[in-house]
Sequence to fold (268 residues):
Amino acid sequence: MTRPLEGLGIHGGRRSRVWLHREPGALRFRTGGATIAADVAHVVDTERCTVLGADGARVAVVEHVLAACHALGFWSDLVIEVDGDELPILDGSAAPWSEALAALGPPPPPPAPWPVSRAVRWRSAASPGASEIDILPGEALLEVSIDFEHPAIGQQRWRGRRADYPALLPARTFGFARELAALQARGLAEGARPGSGILFTDEGTSGPLRTPDEPVRHKAVDAVGDLALLGRPLGGRVRIHRGSHRAHVEAMRHFLAHHPPLPHDPPT
Ligand SMILES: [Zn+2]
Fold:
């Protein structure tokens, strides 16, 4: 067991602590005595973050720790224990989770990738600004693109393979100053503080970016985290334009409907 990571949840604004344990079995969260499998079937909400739930318990903002699990290859034998209902946002990136996981030593042997036998295309109903996700047979490659009407963002694109995922993890979450009050009125972003991500003002940013393309890199982190809920790497190409947690989860459900479980899936 590692020493806990601790901090405020960005949405609820409450302090929580997280311990990572190596324990045989599926990748899972534990909170308040309940165990919640880290899989698509346990997603209960996707408003601004990914929320898992089971037996009346919920745990929110699971995507950054799961991105680190995916990037470092921790697909099983790990319990993520949370003493609250939301993971701390920390610096807004997945880098602190990656450091905590690396301290556990090498990951267990990886599951075989999930072959993509047919193209799965998902489009959100809303338009313009609609999300588009394609999961395609072919080389395992992730392509993420975004298009924000903000002078410091605009159109950005990232593409890479699994070996490139660890380098994405320091990219921080971001938000817009003009949306912050509206989010807080809905009980979201209560824990947003300087240091918990990038705040884009009308003129620019609240501080220097880690890389000029940090926004699209963070969107890729969110995608890598959500894709971990499939339980194994995807052996195909994933193309995400204007993604969101809802879009990721809907597209994965669509994928699962067309790709039945493999005979040797890890136990859940
Ligand atoms: Zn994120």
The chain is about 20% helix and 30% strand. The two ends are 22 Å apart (CA to CA).
